[in-house]
Amino acid sequence: MTMTPEERARRAADAMWTADAASKWLGMSLDEVGPGWARLSFTVEKHHTNGHDICHGGYIFTLADSAFAFACNSYNQRAVAQHNTISFLAPGRLGDRLTAVAREVTLAGRTGVYDATVESQDGTLIAVFRGTSRTVKGTHFDEPDAGG
Fold first, then answer.
1. Among 9, 44, 23, CA closest to 141
2. What is the DSSP string of 40-56?
3. For the chain, domain boundaries
4. pLDDT per residue over 107-132, tens digit each?
5. What Cα–Cα distance (Å) separates residue 109 from each residue in 8, 68, 101, 118, 136?
6. For residue 70, how many other CB atoms are within 10 A of its CB?
7. For the whole model, what pTM was predicted?
8. Distance separating the N- and C-terminal Cα atoms of the chain
9. Domain 5-135: which topology?
10. Taking CA 87 as the corner, what is the angle to CA 56 and CA 77, rounded to the nearest 5 degrees?
11. CA dist 45 to 25, 42, 69, 138, 146, Å?
């Protein structure tokens, strides 16, 4: 039986999540995933804040980067970041629930481009992120050959 693209994305995400100590340590949740996209979130706690008493930009970047990672790995092909940029637009504050949604812009050969937004629970746009991925050898789980 052939797996649907949604099932493949979920299985790949589950396999990645099992080993993703960094995202779990930060307090993220993997909220939803599909072919070429993913949504992750976390609540800003005191240990996420910097000297301005706002969420440290590195944590916001990590949230967007993790959403990007799950989006670009959703085809059960291992993919790594090749280049990422982020623009911070508003601060995340203590107690905010920040959500990153990453979506595929294009996939050409081994290179993918993904855009992500990070928003607070009230819809404030916190940051915009663009990531370029590169597929490498390997898969996240064994998948029967579609023809077999």
1. 9
2. EEEE--GGGB-TTSSB-
3. 5-135
4. 999 999 999 999 999 999 999 999 99
5. 19, 18, 23, 27, 11
6. 25
7. 0.94
8. 9
9. Thiol Ester Dehydrase; Chain A (3.10.129)
10. 90
11. 12, 9, 23, 36, 45
